[in-house]
Amino acid sequence: MRTRIRSSRRAVVLAAVVALGAGALGGCSEDSGDEPVGKATTSAAGGGGGKTTTTLTLGLFGAFGYEEAGLYEQYMKLHPDIKIEQTTIQRNDNYYPPLLTHLGTGSGLSDIQGVEVANITEITTTQADKLMDLGKADGVRKDNFLDWKWAQATNQAGKTIGLGTDIGPTGICYRKDLFAKAGLPTDRAAVSALWAGDWRKYLEAGKAFKAKAPKGAAFVDSASGVMAVVNGSSAERFYDKDGKIVYKTSPAVKEGWDIAAAFAEEGLTAKLQQFTPAWDQAFANSAFATISCPPWMLGYIQDKAGAAGKGKWDMAEAPRPSSWGGAFLTVPEVGRNKAEAAKLAAWLTAPEQQATLFEKRGSFPSAKAAYALPAVADAKHAYFDNAPIGQLFTKAAEGIPLQILGPKDNIIAQNLADVGMLQVDQKGKSSKDGWNAAVKAIDNALDQ
């Protein structure tokens, strides 16, 4: 899911970065089309004073936020002999296939290349020999990172080919005013307690909401959104530990599917498809009371709900810690400046810089050592009634399981959502018929 988010939905909310108690938070947004929004190249140089300058290039997708947060400028002041150039392709689906081609040919690569979390397993299993072992690079400390994030970019031989950037720990954002009208508690601790530990309790809360719901207000935005966040809270989803596709028999996938289908069948959803114009408008129209919220979603809600929503929204803990998003930095072996590139990648992903990105751009750190820093620990969100988002996201991040990822995760997730669950939610198809449609589409996409 993050493939779509970072690459096609980031720009609008990044323009709507909002004030925090300790900084600002942004998110993702909709692109106007499938073409890259220019290969926008930016560059800046340190004050070398006539000394030889080494140019380091970064090839990224979407908006990592390094330039906008001033990190390139800061690094070049610290290293006057370094010049940094960044090339960005907005959509990952336009970025990733050429990256695989360039890795295969050993040409056309930047000194540092970003990799989406949905692609990291394929990279670590098929391209590890083309990339540096950053676990051994100067300035890299494994203990700084969440164990599960580090493991995602480490192959079976123990080679770590990527350093984690952001992650997507998830809470539940909710409308306090709609909860009050439906007779539900509004205090975030009491709301968290409604569904603590069990996604089915979230379903039961939805039924209680529906019984006294204000006219025109559903409990959640979409069944597919529920399915995604439930699936994101389990260690094994679409693949098993041996790399075999097991989504058809996975207990976690069945749980996510059954719970999401129940939301649809009980009439608890607004029958929306996420990241569409109708979904965007629904935030302003008070069409639903809850939605799963990784850090980038907060800025999205503020942008779409507008000033009228301030103070009406709050955030509670999710029933179980879940993850939605993330990326990595890698260093190709063919680069002419490998050592310097590795130093830059290490610095950009160090706790202090990750905390700065959260403060200024809303990217939640994968470096657990950043969580004690004031920019994270003390972060509150004024729009969400000063919710202590730093503490809430930290607790979720530390509880996320080490999830088994596979090279075709995104294809499976997209078809389960947009082919299968969407038919159940919007067209009233049975859970069984929706599942069969999704399986057929996935089999066709995977040539099975």
Major β-sheet, in short?
Answer: 7 strands, mixed
**Rg to the nearest angstrom?**
21 Å
Please indicate the percent range of residues in DSSP E strands (runs of 2 or more): 5-15%
Mean pLDDT: 89
Please give a structural write-up:
This protein has 448 residues and is an alpha+beta fold. The strands form 3 sheets. It has a 7-stranded mixed beta sheet with strand order 3-5-4-6-12-7-13, sandwiched between helices. The longest helix has 19 residues. The N terminus is likely disordered. Helix 10 runs antiparallel to helix 11, helix 10 runs antiparallel to helix 18 and helix 18 runs antiparallel to helix 19. Strand 4, helix 3 and strand 5 form a beta-alpha-beta unit. It contains 19 helices and 13 strands. The protein has 2 domains: 229 residues, Periplasmic binding protein-like II (D-Maltodextrin-Binding Protein, domain 2, 3-Layer(aba) Sandwich), CATH 3.40.190.10; 161 residues, D-Maltodextrin-Binding Protein, domain 2 (3-Layer(aba) Sandwich). 42% of the residues lie in helices and 15% in strands. The radius of gyration is 21 Å and the shape is globular.
